[in-house]
Each structure stands twice: as structure tokens, then as C-alpha cells.
Request: fold
Amino acid sequence: MSVADLLALEGVAVGDKVRLQGWVRTRRDSKAGLSFVQVHDGSCFDPAQVVAPGELENYTDAVVHLTTGCSMIAEGTVVASEGKGQSVEVLASRIEPVGMVEDPDTYPVPAKRHTFEYLREQAHLRVRTNSFSAMARVRHCLANAVHRYFHEHGFYWVHTPIITGSDCEGAGEMFRVSALDLENLPRTESGGIDYSQDFFGKETNLTVSGQLNVESYCLALSKVYTFGPTFRAENSNTSRHLAEFWMIEPEIAFADLAADADLAEDFLKSIFRTLLNERADDMEFFQKRIDKTCLERLEKFVDASFERMDYTEAIARLEKVVADGHKFEFPVKWGMDLQSEHERWLTEEHIGRPVVLMNYPKDIKAFYMRMNDDGKTVAAMDVLVPGIGEIIGGSQREERLDVLDARLEEMNLDKADYWWYRDLRKYGTVPHAGFGLGFERTLIYATGMANVRDVIPFPRTPRSAAF
RNA sequence: UCCAGAGUAGCUCAAUGGUAGAGCAUGCGACUGUUAAUCGCAGGGUUGAAGGUUCGAGUCCUUCCUCUGGAGCCA
Reply:
């Protein structure tokens, strides 16, 4: 049975015979011949305490040599615990070591404190620690909550491609996908690489966003979303960026920017509510050991309404606070992109709640965002949250072909590259909107973890893909 | 990519230019049910790499590598 069921007394009672399988967290010996073995199996935060009496036939040969990381099977009786840390424990009648740790002296994750930096170098074993097993369960819970929310609200999950033939997704540097022999590249007559001989007969890359593809499904299925890995070959070395990360991108038809903002707010609150309800054990750990404010932050988040504010208004308020003597490193001026420090001031100090900033200057935003009537701004939005800054970026999409074409031209983009995207505006176009949410940043916000590399099992960053 | 900091025992860190140490972990021992157990003993080092200065370099200089934090890019 699982440790979770045992500790919750689910389908089991004191006096029952049980069998546990898992890994040793610690072994403590007491007087001559009695050991306490903490066993974890991933089913919940707490390990189970297995009491190994000295009378076990393999006690001196095997049990006292169990060390952190060994795998084992324990059979025994559920008893009320005489100790303080747990209500029930298993009094073992048989302990079977399955896989020993060959050299405890060099086991990379012994029972002691480790820095996250060190554990990143032991990514294959770090999930055996409290922090990373808790994170794995929280990650699963939130991913599951994402799918449940959309399913219950009539959205379809669309599997947009990982390999893309569009070189026009426009969200950053891409990883090339090629089956060509790098040591012996085929050349065109003019000396360039001849991609017509490559696997797909053209240049292909890993996707940086499923948005363009999901828009096509939106204009037939009305409410859709993607949730999968995306790839950016940017040389970003920060605690908030990965080369491979998971992104959630809903897209809704017959919808404007206000509806998009409403969806973002309802969605975020819903998944965090699910997390608080379903992973209280792991969240208690994050609260206690990682970030003392994370529970309070989430509880406030699911109750507070998001402030909505136009970019132009935000600039006015930033200019006012600067005039009142507040110092920023970067100047504030209409038309500029907000810096991290500006976003954080708005959401943390000025409003004190999540803020949806809307209607940005067109010159700092992407070609597909819908032009507003003022001719200066586009229907874009960013959701800013205290403690992390931007967590969502979204927009109403430009559904008018003539306006879209004008924007493509203005930004020196080739209309031919966007032929199928433009078709969507020729055949039954509708106003539609969507946003992108970085899943790892959501996890950081929820748990208070400081680095995005510690919320994904095997992080990919510049110069690092060791596992 | 830019700015700053760091790299010494398995891990976390000390060490004024002059004999490389501690805590934790690990092993052994002690301890009447432990909970980050406690106490004692022990083993454990090419000080990131290559050059240079010096009687002498973990320490100073140069170059490089790696990591961390911040910025930019963004999610």
C-alpha cells in the first residue's frame, strides 16, 4: 500500500497487516537492537516510520546497514506510534532490502542540507529530497488543474506541433531542427545551405509558441488551448528563463481584450484554489522551509480582484511618483516598454494586488495584436503579480486582413510567410483573443521557489543539458 | 550578451603572502522508542585550468572555464 494511504488510514486500520515499498530517507538506531526507518514512496510529503525490532532474522546483517537512498520492502502490522512525529507506524515482521546504496560515503544526496545549486548537478537524484518530491507533486497538481479548468469550461486541448515550419512565430531565437550531416552540408549554387535536401525539404525549428497554430483551431472550435513544451535559444542566464519550458496558451473566439483579461483572472484563481485544496501537505512544506509568505500570498490571490489599468494610466502614475521623488534606474516615458522595476512598483507598492495592464503602444508589441481606434495602441495585456512581475502576456488578435497586412508591411515582415495565418482572416474571421502563461513561472509564484531551474525536473539552460 | 560576486574535503564554508582547518555527511563505537537524534573516535585535499610575480601563492597579476545574483530578451 502507499505511504499516503497508510498515514491517512485510508482502507487500513490499526492492527492490519500491510506491505510498504519505497526508499529509505533515514535510519535511526536505538539501544541494542531496534531501528527506526523512514520510508518514502512519493505518494505524499511525509515518510512512513517502519520500526525494525532486533529479532528480525536479517537485523544485524541487513537492516542496520540500510542507509539513505536504499530501496526496500517492509511487511508488518499497523500500530499506534509511541513516538511524537507520527500517529501510526509499521511494526515490521519482515524487511527486504531491494537495492542497497553501494557506497554511502559517496551517495550524492545523503540526509543533510543541500544547496539548490548543488542539487541541480544531481538532477537524477534530487527528486528523492523533500523539496523536489514536493515540487513534483505540486507541478502535477497544477498541470492537472489546468486541464481540468479548461475541460470544465468547454475548451479543447489542441496539440500544436513541436517542430514548426513557420519561421515567423516571432517570439525569440529558435533551435534549428535538421537531419543534415553537419560535417558535410549540401550547398546551393550560390553557396548557401541547401535545405531542400533536409528532412522536411525546408528549414524547420522547434516551436517558440503554439499561438499561431492554435488560432486556426480557435476559429473552428471557439475555445481552445495548448499546454506543452516550447523552446527559446536565447542566451538568457536568469532565474526566470529556460531554453525549454512549458507554456499554456488559451485562445477564445468572439472575444475582446476584456474577455481575455477575465479569463486570465478566473483561470489563475481557479488553479491556485485547486492547489491549496489538494496539496496542503506540500504547500505547508513550502510555507515552512522555502517561503513563509507563500500560503498567505495564494490565499489573498484567490480572493482579490485584479486591478485593470491602461498602459497610458500606468505611465501617468509612474511619472507622478517620480515627480514625488521616487527613484527608478530607468526613466519613465510614454512609448517605452516597462522595466521590471516599474512593473514591480505598480503591482507591489502602488496597487498591492495583481494588475492587468492593457493597451500598450503598438511599436513595442507584436504584429498580430489588434490595433486600437486611437491608431497608437494595440489591445495587448500583461498580468503583473507581486513578487514576480509579468506572469501572463496576451492580446486581442488583429482579425481585419487589411489592418494586419498594413502592420506586416510596417514591420518589414513578408506577407507570403504568413499565407495561412492571413487565410484565417479571409475566411470567416472573428474577433478573438488569447494569452500565454509560463508554467514554470506559475510554479515559482505558487511555491516561493527562487529559481525556475528548480521547478522543472531536468532544466535546459545555456551550456546545460546534462541529464 | 552586459554588470557584480564566487570556485578550498562528498556538501557548506574558514584560513594577514609563511605548517590547509571546522561543521555537516560517511564509517566504527556508546546510548532503554528515535524524529535534523545525541555523545566519542576515525578516514577524507593536484585549493576550477594554464601561465606569471615572489625565497615562498589558496591568497597578488594575466587569460580562460564553470556557477550564482542582477540587467536585457521574454513566458
Chain A has a mean pLDDT of 92.
